[in-house]
Design brief:
The structure is a single chain. With 474 residues, this protein is α+β, with helices and mostly antiparallel strands. The chain has two domains: 3-70 and 111-283 and 362-471, Outer membrane efflux proteins (OEP), CATH 1.20.1600.10; 308-333, no CATH class. The chain has helices at 3-13, 31-41, 43-64, 114-180, 186-221, 247-257, 259-279, 340-346, 365-431, 437-471, and strands spanning 28-29, 69-79, 82-84, 91-93, 96-110, 230-231, 285-297, 301-319, 322-337, 349-357. A four-stranded antiparallel beta sheet has the order 2-5-7-10, with helices on one face.
Length: 474
C-alpha cells in the first residue's frame, strides 16, 4: 500500500462531518461507477499501460532476433581523376560513372543460447509490467474506495450536525419566548444562543470538509463533480460478528493474489535469466553469411572482330641484297558500350561462408558483467523479501485496527444509548424547571458527540475491512 493511501487513511480518521446540496436532477455515483471512471481516466494507470505496450514490443523484437538478417545495398556515383575501373580493375585517369549492388545474409547459428535467454527475459519483463498494471488497478481501487467511504462518513456527520442544530433551535425558540416575557433565567437564553452559534459553526466546518472530500475523489477520477452530484450509500452495515479471517490467512491470500508479489517474482526470474545472458559471452559465436554482388562501369566496352588487314611493321629484311618490308596481319575490332543491365548480369558473383568468433580475452568484461547480473538478481530477491515483510507488518497493524474499531463501535453503541437516556431525562427536567442549562447542554453535547463518534467509528470499521479485503486480493 503506497504513501498516498496511508495519507488518505490518516486524514480520514481525523475528520468529522460535511455535505452538499441535493436536488431531483442530481447525478448519483455508485462506488462501482467511481471505480470504472478512475480506471478509465487515471493518468498514472495510462502511463503504466504504455510501458506495458513498450515491453510487449521489446518481447516481439527479442523473438525476431532468431530470424536471419537480410540487407540490400545500392550505390551510384561519379569518379573524377585517377581511380580503378570496376570492370577491368585497372587504373584509369578519366571521368567514370559507377554503380554497384549487393545482397547480404547473416544468420546466427549458436551464441551460447543468448537469443533464447533474451526472449525468456523479455517475456518475464513483459509479464512483470502486466502485473504492475494490475497492481496499479488494485491500489487505485483501494484509494477510490477509501475516498468514497470518507465522503459517505462526512455526509452522515453533516446530517447529524444538522439534526443537532434542529434540536437546539427548538429549545432556543422556547427560551427566547421566556426571555421576551421576562420569565426564567436570562442567562439560559444567552447560553442557548451560544450553543446554537457553536453548532452553526460546526455545520460550516462539516460542509467544508465534505466539499474537500468530494474534491479529493474528483481529482482522482479526473472528472467534474458539482454540488448537484450525489454518492450512493454503501449498504454494508457493521456486523455484530467480528471479521472471521485471521491475519495469517489474510497474508497468505495476499501472497497468492496481490499483483505486487507476482510482479516482483517475475522481475527475479528476469534477473536470473540475465545471468545466463551474461554467461553467453563465454561461448563461441557461430554465424552463417552469404553475399550476392554485381557492379557497373560507364567506360566498360565490348570489342567485336570485324576482319583482318595487312600492315607494315616498319621492319625490313634483306632478300637477294634488297630490303623488303615486313608485313603482318592485324585483327580489326569494333567497340561498343555494354549496357547497364548486361553488366549487372555479367558481373554477378556470390559468396557463402561460416564465421566463428571465439572469445579469448576481453578485459574481464564478460566476468564482470556476470557478477553485476548476479548482484541484480540478489537485489530483486531482497526487494521481494522486503515487500513481504512490509506487507506482513501492515496486515497485522490493519487487523489490529479493525479489531479495535469493532470493539469501539459496540462500546460506543452502549454509550449512545446511555447518553440518549441521560439527555431525555435532562430535557424533561429542564422543561419542568427542575434542571439547569449547564446540565442540559452537557448531556446534549455528550449524546451528540457520542453519535458523531459512533458514526465515524462505523465507517472506520468499514474502511478497515476494505483494507483487509484489499490485502486478500478482493
Amino acid at each position: 500500500m503506497n504513501k498516498r493511501i496511508l495519507l488518505i487513511i490518516g486524514c480520514w480518521i481525523g475528520v468529522i462531518g460535511i455535505g452538499f446540496s441535493q436536488n431531483t436532477q442530481a447525478t448519483i455515483y455508485t462506488l462501482q461507477d467511481c471505480l470504472d471512471i478512475s480506471i478509465e481516466n487515471n493518468l498514472v494507470l495510462k502511463i503504466q499501460e504504455l510501458r506495458a505496450k513498450a515491453s510487449k514490443t521489446n518481447f516481439k523484437e527479442s523473438k525476431n532476433n532468431i530470424l536471419p538478417s537480410l540487407n540490400m545495398n545500392y550505390n551510384l556515383g561519379i569518379n573524377n581523376g585517377r581511380s580503378i575501373d570496376p570492370f577491368t580493375n585497372s587504373y584509369i585517369n578519366q571521368e567514370l560513372t559507377f554503380s554497384n549492388a549487393g545482397l547480404s545474409l547473416d544468420a546466427t547459428i549458436f551464441n551460447g543460447f543468448r537469443i533464447k535467454n533474451e526472449i525468456k527475459q523479455s517475456r518475464f519483463n513483459m509479464q512483470a509490467f502486466e502485473m504492475e498494471i494490475e497492481e496499479a488497478k488494485q491500489n487505485l481501487t483501494l484509494e477510490v474506495t477509501l475516498l468514497y467511504i470518507q465522503i459517505l462518513n462526512n455526509r452522515d456527520l453533516l446530517e447529524l450536525s444538522k439534526a443537532r442544530l434542529t434540536t437546539t433551535e427548538s429549545q432556543l425558540k422556547r427560551f427566547e419566548s421566556q426571555y421576551n416575557n421576562g420569565l426564567g433565567n436570562p442567562a439560559d437564553f444567552t447560553d442557548m444562543q451560544g450553543q446554537y452559534a457553536r453548532e452553526q459553526t460546526g455545520i460550516i466546518t462539516a460542509e467544508n470538509n465534505l466539499k474537500s472530500a468530494v474534491l479529493n475523489l474528483v481529482k482522482l477520477l479526473s472528472i467534474d463533480v458539482d454540488s448537484e452530484n450525489r454518492f450512493e450509500t454503501i449498504f454494508e452495515i457493521i456486523n455484530t460478528e467480528k471479521y472471521q479471517i485471521s491475519a495469517d490467512d489474510i497474508y497468505n491470500d495476499a501472497l497468492e493474489n496481490l499483483a505486487t508479489f507476482k510482479s516482483k517474482q517475475l522481475l527475479i526470474d528476469a534477473a536470473k535469466t540475465g545471468i545466463k545472458i551474461a554467461r553467453s559471452n563465454y561461448f563461441p559465436e557461430v554465424s552463417l553469411f552469404g553475399q550476392l554482388n554485381t557492379n557497373y562501369s560507364s567506360i566498360a566496352q565490348l570489342f567485336i572482330q570485324t576482319g583482318t588487314s595487312t600492315i607494315e611493321t616498319g621492319d625490313f629484311v634483306a632478300i637477294n641484297g634488297q630490303d623488303q618490308a615486313v608485313l603482318r596481319n592485324e585483327t580489326q575490332f569494333e567497340s561498343s558500350k555494354i549496357n547497364y543491365k548486361d553488366q549487372f548480369d555479367n558481373n554477378l558473383y556470390s559468396v557463402v561462408g561460416i564465421s566463428v568468433r571465439v572469445p579469448l580475452f576481453n578485459g574481464f568484461r564478460a566476468k564482470n558483467n556476470v557478477r553485476i547480473k548476479k548482484i541484480q538478481h540478489e537485489e530483486a530477491q531482497v526487494n521481494l523479501k522486503q515487500t513481504k515483510f512490509i506487507f506482513k507488518q501492515s496486515i497485522k497493524e490493519a487487523y489490529n485496527n479493525m479489531e479495535s474499531s469493532f470493539k469501539r463501535y459496540h462500546a460506543l453503541k452502549n454509550q449512545v444509548t446511555a447518553y440518549e437516556e441521560s439527555f431525555r431525562v435532562n430535557e424533561v427536567r429542564l422543561n419542568n424547571g427542575v434542571s439547569n442549562m449547564l446540565e442540559y447542554i452537557t448531556s446534549k453535547n455528550n449524546m451528540e458527540t457520542s453519535k458523531l463518534t459512533l458514526n465515524q467509528t462505523k465507517y472506520e470499521y468499514l474502511l478497515r475491512i476494505k483494507i483487509l479485503d484489499y490485502y486478500r486480493g478482493l
